[in-house]
Amino acid sequence: MNRRITAPNFWMMRSILIGILCTGAAFSAAAQQLQPAAEYQRRAEEMFHRVWTLYRVPQYGLFSEYYPQQHQDSLTYMQDGKVASREVSYLWPFSGVVSSTNVMMRLPRRKKAYRPYLDSVMNGMYLYRDTSRQPAGYQAYPVRFEKVDRYYDDNGLVVIDYMEAYENTRNRLYLSRAKEVFAFIMSGWTDTLGGGVTWLEGHHDQKPACSNGMATLSALKLYKATRDRYYLEQGQRFYDWMHRHLRDSAGLYCNDVKTATGQVNPTYYTYNSGAMLEAAVLLYQFTGRRKYYEDAAQTARSAYAYFGKAQPGLRSEFCDLPWFATVLFRGYCAWYAIDKDPVYLKAIIARVDHAWNHRDRNGLLNHDWSGREDETGKPKWLLDEACIAELYGRMALLNL
C-alpha cells in the first residue's frame, strides 16, 4: 500500500513560517563568525590523528568501540537490543573512520600523506566481509571472531565508502567490491509494501529509511562512477519507494514502515533526511529533472526548520546524534553545490564549533554538543569522534 504521511499541524506551521523562526538558537548560530578554512583543516587533522592514537587496535588493524575501552559498555543499536562492546568496534562506527579518511585524502596537498591510512582502513573493512552466506555481504562484526547479523544499512555505508575510496584512488578493486556489496543489498529487495529492503537480513518486521536511503545513495554513487544505467534505475527505484512510503508532506523522512500493517513510525532523524537530500541533488544532476531539485529544496528547508530547534528527544540543535548530523551536513554540502547559500551549513558548523570549545581532557568531544549534559568521565564512542574529523574536513574543503 502506498502511503503518504501527513505532518502534525505545529510542524506544518513551523515549515511555513520558517522566516519567523530566525530568533531560534540555530538560526542565530548560522550568522556566527566562521573560522578560516585553514583552521578547520587543522582541527580535522588533529581529531583524525587523535582517533587513530586513542582508538586504534593495531594487532587487528581495527579500532575499539570506546575510549577508554572497557569491554562492558552496552550497545543499543543492534536488532537484539543491548549488546556488550567487544575487543574491536562493530562495522557502523568503523565506517565512520573510513569516511573521515576519505575526506582527509581530499585536503589540499594531503593525498600522499593520507594514502597509507586509507589503504589500512580499506583492508580493515574487508575483515567484516562474510562469504559463508550468499551473496557475500558485510556482517556487523569481523568474521574472524564470530558469525553475526548482516544489516542492509551497514552494507549501504560500505558501498559508499568503497566508492569514495575509488574516487580518491581509482583503484578498481574498490569499485569491484562496491558492486559486490550492492548485489547483496539488492538480494534483500522484496515486493512487500511495493519494494525496498528491511533493516537486516532474515528479519522482515520493518522497512526503514536508514537501509533504503543508504541503498539509494549507494546506487547513485555507483552510477556516478560507471554511468551504467542499471545503477541509475535502481537508485530511482529506491528513491521512489522512499518518496511514496516515508516522505512526509513537509519533505522530511520518517524512520520506518511496519511490513505487517503498513504503519509508519513518525520519528525523524537528521541522517534519514540528509541521505535523501543528497540523493535528490544527485538525481537532479544526473537527469536534469526539476522534480528532484524541488524535492531537495523542500527537504533542505524543512530539515533546517525542524532540526534547527531543540525537539523532544533531541539532545541539541542539529544533533540527535553527531554522526547523524554529519550525514545531514553531507546533504547540505551537495545542496550548496547547486544552491550556493551557506545558511544551512553555517548553522551546523556553529554547533560543532561550540562542542569543539567544550572538549574533555583527552581532547574528545561530548556526545551532546550543547554541553547541557555532564559527560565527565564517560567513555567516548568511536563514531561520535570520527565524524568530527569528517565534518571539519568537509568544512575546510568548502572554504566558505
Give an overview of the whole structure.
Helices cover 54% and strands 8% of the residues. The protein has 400 residues and is mainly α. The protein contains 14 helices and eleven strands. It has one domain (9-398): Glycosyltransferase (Alpha/alpha barrel), CATH 1.50.10. The radius of gyration is 20 Å and the shape is globular. The strands form five sheets. The protein has a three-stranded antiparallel β-sheet. The chain has helices at residues 9-16, 25-29, 37-55, 91-104, 111-126, 152-169, 172-187, 209-226, 229-245, 270-287, 290-307, 322-339, 343-356, 382-398, and strands at 56-57, 62-63, 66-67, 74-78, 81-84, 129-130, 137-138, 206-208, 254-258, 264-268, 380-381. The N and C termini lie far apart (44 Å). α6 runs antiparallel to α7 and α12 packs parallel to α14 (382-398).
**What distance lies between the first and last C-alpha atoms, to the nearest angstrom?**
44 Å
- Which CATH architecture? Alpha/alpha barrel
- Principal-axes geometry comes out as globular
**Low-confidence region ranges:** 1-31
Q: Quick one: biggest sheet?
A: 3 strands, antiparallel
Widest beta sheet: strand line-up = 8-9-10
Helix- and strand-based class? mainly alpha
Mean pLDDT: 90
Instruction: Could you tell me the CATH topology label.
Output: Glycosyltransferase
Topology as a string of helices (H) and strands (E): HHHEEEEEHHEEHHEHHEEHHHHEH
So what's the CATH class? Mainly Alpha
Number of distinct helices: 14
Strand content: 5-15%
- Number of strand segments: 11
Share of residues in helices: 40-55%
- How many domains in all? 1
> C-alpha Rg, in Å?
20 Å
